[in-house]
Amino acid sequence: MWKITNNFHTHTSRCGHAFGEDEEYVVAAIKAGIKVLGFSDHTPWPNISQRRIRMDEEMLGNYVKSINFLKEKYKDIIDIHLGLEVEYIDEFVPFYKKIKEEYGIEYFILGQHGEVDENGPYFYNQFANNKEMASRYVEQVIKGMESGLFKYVAHPDHFLNGYRINDYFIESQMRQICQKSLELNIPLEVNLTYPRIAIMQGGVHNGLDAYPFDKFWKIVGEYGCPVVFGIDAHEPDNLLLDYSDEIRYMIETFKLNVVGL
Question: Strands, E, within the chain: which ranges?
């Protein structure tokens, strides 16, 4: 009942901070009993190289070729899909649409980590307890949801890693995301990265210190937003861990409206 059988959040070594061969992820997913595996490595940005964060644009063709090969090879065993994890940035939208059509990308997930300004790329969480950055994050997530480009929002509470003050301001920001998710019926992802770290260390995830943040998912449950779970796999073995205790805790504690496991 608490087992993940659909995971659309899987990375590859091309992003520079994930490990393992593409096929190793597929083999691990099959072993774990996953029925649907979506690859969604970090999208390239046009004319910007961030080799520890995302693939360069010239690597995209190899990524697509590899995933499509595996999709065909394992088609009778597991359902594989080709996607990308993408930040919503206004000026990059034409590029995103272009590569989606040109390479036959099936889906984007919205993983809003940062943007680019005149000084280059930056992360929202570089700026501790910064209201402007928190607001900017929420503004871009909402624009992304409204764009129609995205299957779901990955780690929607990511910005709370940077904004640690519990105040009316941050509650209003969280509610804006939930309201838009409900309005547009776009799922919000419970990201299992930090629960995974806790499991691997023999502990239990603390929803006060890292996402999924309890305070955010309490509001999600209150609104009844559609919810999915994402393993956010960066190594094949990430797919083999037992996440059932965390999944049960999140669903039962916050009465989440889960639309697919």
Answer: 6-7, 36-42, 79-86, 107-110, 114-117, 120-123, 150-153, 188-191, 226-230, 257-260
Angle between helices 168-184 and 214-223 (to 10 degrees): 40
pLDDT above 90: residue 261 = no
pTM: 0.97
Q: Could you report the per-residue pLDDT of 137-162, keeping only the tens digit for each? A: 999 999 999 999 999 999 999 999 99
CA nearest to 33, candidates 100, 79, 87 = 79
pLDDT in tens, 48-88: 999 999 999 999 999 999 999 999 999 999 999 999 999 99
| 169/189 Cα distance (integer angstroms) | 22
Hey, what are 124's tokens? 């929202």
The per-residue pLDDT of the chain, averaged, comes to: 97
Q: Give the chain's domains with CATH numbers.
A: 6-260 (3.20.20.140)
**pLDDT value of position 48:** 93
Cα 67 off chain centre by: 18
Tokens 């390479």 locate to 103
Bridge-based pairing state of the strands 114-117 and 107-110: unpaired
Listing DSSP states for 238-255 in one string gives: GGGS--HHHHHHHHHHHT
Q: Which tokens is 36 given?
A: 């649907």
* Phi, psi values for residue 116, rounded to 5°: -130, 135
How far, in Å, are 43, 82, 153, 250 from residue 221 at the CA level?
Answer: 30, 30, 16, 10
